[in-house]
Amino acid sequence: MKKLFLALALLLPMIAMAQEEKPIQGEMPATESAFQLAAGLAKYGYSHNDALSLIQAARIAKQEGFALSTRVKAEGQTEATAATQFNLNPDQLLADARAKASGDDVILALIDDAAAMSNGTRGSSRPIYTTDVVSGNSYDLYHHTFRGDEGATVICIGDGDTDLDLYIYDENYNLIAKDDDYTDDCVCTFRPYWTGTFYIKIVNRGRIANRYLLRSN
What is residue 26's three-state secondary structure? Predict the structure, then answer.
């Protein structure tokens, strides 16, 4: 019975996130879907002081073996800071969940269970992501190589402080895809006709900095 209760406790934040998902154009690979869910749960956990969401985000990050990688900006400030510590590091997520647990034995048991999980590993093919901060009323620009005739997905999840828009351009700066709604949860899916360098542009429509998680396959 205790295990069933713990499992139900972990499912609650995932149900809440599923209700907030927006439709995606094109097919999204399972790894990208997992990243979007984990990032969304972490974002919710930090913004609502919800330990359960942080725990589930840590579990998904461990299962998928997500690895943080440095990505150099082609354009954009590097000294910007944001108040939130929004991240997808399992150890940090669990430490922050413990700080929000208020001594709750059930939540502490869930944290211990997640901490005991082994990290998923895929050798050199571990899925990587980047975390950075975009200044208010500014943008960050990255170069990325996509392969021709293969599905491409770019996901940018902000910390919730401002509206972020995501744009994908080809090497001639022709717009390929965009997500410019009024949130900072951005997803672009497309299929390039050729292999080449593309531009990933993250625009901050707000006046303050926004910390974001970025992944592209």
Answer: coil
CA dihedral 65, 134, 80, 56 (to 10 degrees): -30
Dist CA 157 CA 175 (whole Å)? 20
Count how many residues are written for the chain: 217
Q: Which residues pair with 75 in a beta bridge?
A: 141
Q: Is domain 2-119+131-216 given the CATH code 2.60.120.380 in the classification?
A: yes
pLDDT tens digits for range 1-15: 444 344 445 555 554
Q: Is the CB of residue 110 less than 8 Å from the CB of residue 10?
A: yes
* DSSP 8-state secondary structure symbol assigned to residue 75: B
pLDDT tens per residue, range 80-98: 676 677 889 999 999 999 9
Domain ranges, ordered by start, for the chain:
2-119+131-216
- Residue, of 125 and 174, whose pLDDT is higher: 174
Joined together, the tokens standing for residue 169 give 């351009």
Measured distance between the N- and C-terminal CA atoms of the chain, rounded to whole angstroms: 40
Opening angle at CA 116, ends 115 and 117, nearest 5: 90
